Task: structure prediction
Amino acid sequence: MCKTWAPRGHTPRISYHYRHDRISVISGVSLSAVRHRVGLYFRWHRKNIQRPEVVAFVRHLLRHLPGDVIILWDNNNIHKGEPLDRLRRRCPRLHIEFFPAYAPELNPDEGVWAQAKHRLANGRPDDLAALSRRLTATLRRLHRSPHRLRRCLHQTGLPFFSSPLHYLRRCQ
Result:
């Protein structure tokens, strides 16, 4: 919840017109097991994200991330299915694991979106293009802030985010 102001005794009124335009974003926080570098990858779409967009995002990650890529996802249906299974079979360095049912506190990406929503709160873009620019600028700012991204990882309390190399060696 965010605060706003108005003259004493007057309820603040914010005028808006409801539109059905949308921006959907798929994103992920990366952590290098060897160098402990953190990164943020994202892609936005002007429609609801479905399996083809998820597969395209995973391909994007595979092009940019060397070595094994371990994706931790929630149990949303768009993160499952034959297109992703086919990609996993073709790309042995891709590993997909799922968070337990309804466990957003374990997902570092939730921290990214909490920060992004905080920066975007109380804004009222005039159109979808203005929202796109502001959202992209906000996510790029997070991308350039390893400290903020690392905080998203640590807030989960998961052991492999505190010491990924040690954790991965133990799991082999």
In short: The longest strand covers residues 24-31.
